[in-house]
């Protein structure tokens, strides 16, 4: 047993993913080889990072989805590197076990391998993330190769890639039909050979994601891609009910945070107006 896996962080028997004291990129491949699933959630602040880390979530993604759920942009396209780095820095401070991955925003890496490297260096030096994620398959091979050569772990992202929503014709499932499915597999092989340590498959038909997961050596992380991928990722505000609008079909709601917050806020307002708060117990 390795030094990193000697003690389970939250009690119990040290087995598999739960036994790892600090998640590294190689652990994801180890879990794939062992047939053990792993988890990823998005997060953007120290409090949720700490909660998810202590709950045993294996990887935390500071996603460009912050554009929507933190900054209120209509799409992920407007968010900038300067807006994401402070969020990533906070998540790193809150996570002691989970692997923290920074998401490169639109326009910060597509221009050239050197642009991708410079942006990734900022995320690693200024925020302290352990890896970065970028969108694209075959077309991103030069960027992935440059980052891998420079010692920066890369998680690729293929299938539906939100930063390319206009080019893809909106939020549409990718990989339907024999030719499209072959394109997904080709992208997966390409990012693997370029040096990516894992690949996200978004909105890909389950059978296609299953085939990709079976054929590639690197771990696959599904979102709307069935349950046969090696890991799963969700946006936490969707999964735990903070978003009150429409959520994608592939989201399962595990909690109702919005209602709990609303009830608490209403109770606070009522107590202040009635002078029930602060009471004697809350007064020096």
UniProtKB/TrEMBL annotation:
Binding site for 3-methyl-2-oxobutanoate: 64-65, 103, 133
GO cellular component: cytoplasm
Major localisation: cytoplasm
Catalytically driven reaction(s): (6R)-5,10-methylene-5,6,7,8-tetrahydrofolate + 3-methyl-2-oxobutanoate + H2O = 2-dehydropantoate + (6S)-5,6,7,8-tetrahydrofolate
Textual note on the cofactor: Binds 1 Mg(2+) ion per subunit.
InterPro entries: Pantoate_hydroxy_MeTrfase, Pyrv/PenolPyrv_kinase-like_dom, Pyrv_kinase-like_dom_sf
Cofactor(s) needed by this chain: Mg(2+)
Record family assignment: Belongs to the PanB family.
Protein name as catalogued: 3-methyl-2-oxobutanoate hydroxymethyltransferase
Source organism per UniProt: Nocardioides baekrokdamisoli
Lineage, uppermost ranks: Bacteria, Bacillati, Actinomycetota, Actinomycetes, Propionibacteriales
């Amino acid at each position: 047993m390795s030094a990193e896996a000697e003690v389970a962080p939250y009690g119990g028997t040290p087995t598999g993913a739960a036994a790892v004291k600090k998640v590294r990129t190689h652990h994801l491949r180890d879990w794939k080889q062992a047939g053990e699933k792993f988890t990823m959630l998005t997060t953007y602040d120290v409090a949720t990072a700490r909660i998810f880390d202590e709950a045993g979530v294996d990887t935390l993604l500071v996603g460009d989805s912050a554009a929507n759920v933190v900054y209120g942009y209509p799409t992920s396209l407007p968010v900038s590197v300067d807006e994401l780095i402070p969020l990533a820095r906070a998540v790193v401070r809150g996570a002691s076990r989970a692997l923290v991955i920074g998401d490169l925003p639109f326009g910060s890496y597509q221009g050239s391998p050197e642009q991708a490297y410079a942006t990734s260096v900022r995320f690693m030096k200024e925020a302290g993330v352990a890896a970065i994620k970028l969108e694209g398959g075959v077309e991103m091979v030069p960027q992935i190769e440059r980052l891998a050569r420079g010692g920066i772990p890369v998680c690729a992202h293929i299938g539906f890639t939100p930063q390319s929503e206009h080019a893809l014709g909106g939020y549409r499932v990718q990989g339907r039909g024999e030719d499209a499915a072959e394109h997904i597999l080709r992208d997966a092989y390409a990012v693997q050979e370029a040096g990516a340590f894992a690949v996200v498959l978004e909105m890909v038909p389950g059978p296609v994601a299953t085939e990709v997961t079976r054929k590639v050596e690197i771990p696959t992380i599904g979102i709307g891609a069935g349950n046969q991928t090696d890991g799963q990722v969700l946006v936490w505000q969707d999964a735990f009910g903070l978003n009150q609008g429409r959520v994608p079909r592939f989201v399962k709601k595990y909690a109702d945070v919005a209602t709990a917050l609303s009830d608490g806020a209403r109770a606070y307002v009522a107590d202040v107006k009635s002078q029930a708060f602060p009471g004697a117990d809350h007064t020096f």
